[in-house]
């Protein structure tokens, strides 16, 4: 039965079948038991969903440790090293601590909404993780409108953040929620617009299709990823910055700026509910990085010719690790923005650049994607970028502060 | 059909809550729920693209905007609202029940002779795009102009009159 | 009851609920809530007729709904901007208190 379940078009040693194994096993088992076709499909989908959730919950536990370790190394500390070997059991210890803590609901809170918000906040991230193609044969749910689904389900995050902030019935959560919503709404625009260029060139909203179209190599070694085109480079950068803001990561972490408003909309949460917020945030981070990889970094495609023998999902998770490390690196390096700088940056810099990638992508598509396309699109994007940089540096950048007591 | 019926009841309950709840923020959240359930309804009867767009625009933008302006204005008229309830209900029903009667009468007259349900006609995205950008291209351009105008207009409206502006402060 | 009749009944009732909110509410933002409900009832009609009505190869129903959604978003944005501007003058969104032309 095991062998029958792993039967695929490809060889046994490619290991492409491994992530699909639970789904296939469940389907076969239900089939043997004589379940109806609908029930077999349903069981298989459920197994696929459980696989994705299990993988990303494991990744979440690992990341919560790696983040602390990385930040510690950047700040010349050691980081958690008490629980287990190199602190490897720290996530378990944190989990036990969170689960056994007292669950406090403020007296002035709206009980129902206060309870509903942490449940709702993880939902969009988990649903969004379901449509991303992780490997050549591993797309949990393949939707024709996958990209649209990803963005529309993301709208739920804003509502649940508002519910958390408002239902807590105190000041800091409210301020945090207002900051978070205005930030999310502003950065959703460049995020969508930068993804639109990819859709225009691919001609499809289906994520597996977008990855499949990035197959092959230029000049024999340069992967045909969207990032390695003029419009894709600009779009990818805009997408990355907007994704940082969308997932409330530093330097855009104003909604939960610890030194200003405690923990933003999560202030009044404790114990397991707080852990749910934490989990939702990290799963959202995985989802949006996965989408960025799918759109711009070639998804599960190998980075060099001759490396295709490595299972494709290993490439996907390798790229994911790299992108997440970039997130951590930026968090350890940059100071937090002010709210007016944040808004100005979104509306005056990111949105114009994201809009410019659309004509650039169109020109790229209709001039044959060759030398001529490079000649036309590079100036089209570089000149406005230069102008915006000059404006931002000269006019809009905050004046250099002079510190009276810290100039030793 | 049963699922459709249950969903219909849920939509009605959410809409009723949005209309009747005395707490403004609850009403707005119930509106978001009602709009999201509309999107689910569209997905269920096969209009996938419309359903997802509905979810993105209404839940992600319109409901959030409404909730956000409730946060800024902080209306506190709950007790007053509840006190006016009996009078309000009477007047409201007096005005709306005839409309409902006419609509339901029309629906019932139509439903007897209406066409029979068939399989869901699939919207091919390519076909939708082709029709949208050929037959309806002028309308798309008009909507684009409208949306640009709205963006600029809303930004101008919402701008806090600064010290430089000639608008005098409240007398 | 056919699905078409069910959906048309739903949309009539939702429309009337929206109308009720517009007539009864005093808070301008909550009146906007009613308007959104009424617009959605209209959209639901278009989708219902596209799905269960006579064949519609030109996809008139869904395209009309797309335009309606775009315009509804614009309407909400402008409406709320106006309400916020009025609120800044009078510190209230109660329409019954906004009875003077002089701000």
Describe this structure in words.
The complex is a heterotrimer of chains A (408), B (171) and C (103). Chain A is built from 14 helices and two strands; from the N terminus they run H-H-H-H-H-H-H-H-E-E-H-H-H-H-H-H. With 408 residues, chain A is an all-alpha fold. In chain A, strand 1 and strand 2 (222-223) form a beta hairpin. In chain A, helix 5 (111-129) runs antiparallel to helix 6. Chain A starts with a helix and ends in a 12-residue tail after the last helix. Chain B is mainly α and 171 residues long. The longest helix of chain B is centred in the middle third of the chain and has 29 residues, at 85-113. Chain B is globular and about 55 Å long. In chain C, helix 1 (3-24) packs antiparallel against helix 2. The mean pLDDT of chain C is 84. Chains in contact: A-B, B-C.
Protein topology:
The complex is a heterotrimer of chains A (408), B (171) and C (103).
Chain A: H1 2-5, H2 21-32, H3 37-74, H4 90-100, H5 111-129, H6 146-167, H7 171-202, H8 207-212, E1 217-218, E2 222-223, H9 230-246, H10 258-261, H11 271-296, H12 312-333, H13 339-366, H14 371-396
Antiparallel strand pairs in A: 1-2
Chain B: H1 2-20, H2 24-44, H3 48-73, H4 78-83, H5 85-113, H6 125-134, H7 137-158
Helix pairs in contact in B: 1-2, 2-3
Chain C: H1 3-24, H2 28-52, H3 60-90
Helix pairs in contact in C: 1-2, 2-3
Based on the model shown, name its key terms:
heterotrimer, A: 408 residues, mainly alpha, two-stranded antiparallel ribbon, 2 strands, 65% helix, B: 171 residues, disordered C terminus
């Amino acid at each position: 039965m095991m062998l029958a379940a792993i039967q695929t078009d490809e060889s046994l040693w490619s290991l492409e079948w491994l992530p699909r194994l639970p789904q296939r096993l469940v389907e076969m088992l239900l089939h043997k038991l004589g379940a109806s076709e609908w029930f077999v499909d349903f069981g298989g989908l459920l197994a696929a969903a459980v696989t994705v959730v299990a993988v990303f919950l494991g990744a979440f536990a690992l990341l919560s440790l790696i983040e602390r370790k990385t930040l510690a190394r950047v700040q010349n500390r050691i980081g958690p090293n008490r629980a287990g070997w190199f602190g490897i059991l720290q996530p378990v210890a944190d989990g036990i601590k969170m689960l056994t803590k007292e669950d406090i609901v403020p007296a002035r809170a709206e009980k129902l909404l206060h309870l509903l918000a942490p449940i709702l906040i993880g939902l969009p991230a988990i649903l969004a993780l379901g449509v991303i193609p992780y490997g050549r044969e591993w797309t949990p749910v393949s939707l024709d409108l996958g990209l649209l689904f990803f963005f529309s389900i993301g709208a739920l995050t804003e509502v649940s953040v508002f519910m958390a902030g408002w239902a807590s019935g105190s000041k800091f959560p409210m301020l945090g929620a207002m900051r978070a919503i205005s930030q999310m709404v502003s950065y959703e625009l460049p995020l969508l617009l930068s993804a639109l260029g990819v859709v225009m060139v691919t001609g499809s909203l289906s994520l597996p299709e977008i990855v499949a179209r990035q197959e092959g190599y230029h000049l024999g070694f340069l992967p045909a990823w969207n990032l390695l085109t003029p419009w894709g480079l600009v779009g990818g950068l805009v997408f990355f910055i907007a994704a940082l803001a969308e997932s409330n990561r530093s330097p855009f972490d104003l909604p939960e700026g610890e030194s200003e408003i405690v923990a933003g909309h999560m202030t009044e949460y404790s114990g397991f509910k707080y852990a749910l917020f934490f989990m939702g945030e990290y799963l959202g981070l995985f989802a949006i990085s996965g989408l960025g990889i799918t759109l711009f970094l070639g998804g599960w495609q190998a980075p060099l010719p001759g490396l295709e023998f490595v299972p494709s999902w290993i490439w996907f998770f390798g790229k994911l690790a790299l992108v997440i490390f970039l997130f951590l690196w930026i968090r350890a390096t940059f100071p937090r923005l002010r709210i007016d700088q944040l808004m100005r940056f979104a509306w005056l810099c990111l949105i114009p650049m994201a809009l410019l990638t659309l004509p650039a992508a169109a020109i790229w598509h209709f001039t044959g994607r060759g030398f001529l396309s490079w000649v036309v699109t590079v100036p089209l994007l570089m000149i406005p970028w230069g102008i915006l940089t000059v404006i931002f540096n000269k006019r809009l950048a905050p004046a250099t502060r002079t510190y009276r007591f810290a100039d030793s | 059909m049963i699922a459709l019926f249950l969903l219909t009841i849920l939509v009605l309950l959410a809409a009723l809550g949005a209309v009747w709840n005395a707490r403004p923020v609850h009403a707005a959240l119930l509106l978001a729920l009602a709009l999201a359930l509309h999107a689910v309804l569209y997905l269920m009867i096969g209009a996938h693209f419309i359903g997802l767009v509905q979810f993105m625009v209404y839940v992600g933008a319109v409901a959030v905007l409404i909730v956000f302006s409730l946060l800024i204005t902080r209306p506190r008229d709950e007790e007053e609202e509840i006190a006016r309830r009996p009078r309000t209900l009477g007047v409201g029903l007096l005005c709306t029940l005839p409309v409902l009667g006419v609509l339901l009468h029309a629906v019932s007259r139509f439903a007897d002779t209406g066409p029979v349900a068939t399989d869901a006609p699939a919207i091919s995205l390519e076909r939708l795009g082709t029709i949208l950008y050929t037959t309806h291209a002028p309308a798309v351009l008009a909507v684009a102009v409208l949306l640009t105008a709205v963006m600029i207009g809303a930004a101008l409206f919402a701008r806090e009159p600064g010290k430089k502006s000639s608008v005098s402060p409240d007398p | 009851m056919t699905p078409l009749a069910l959906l048309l009944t739903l949309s009539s009732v939702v429309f009337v609920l929206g109308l009720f909110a517009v007539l009864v509410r005093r808070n301008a933002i909550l009146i906007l809530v009613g308007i959104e409900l009424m617009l959605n009832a209209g959209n639901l009609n278009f989708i219902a007729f596209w799905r269960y009505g006579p064949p519609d190869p030109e996809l008139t129903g869904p395209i009309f709904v797309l335009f309606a959604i775009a315009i509804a978003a614009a309407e909400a944005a402008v409406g709320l901007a106006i309400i916020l501007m009025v609120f800044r003058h009078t510190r209230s969104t109660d329409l019954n208190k906004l009875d003077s032309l002089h701000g």
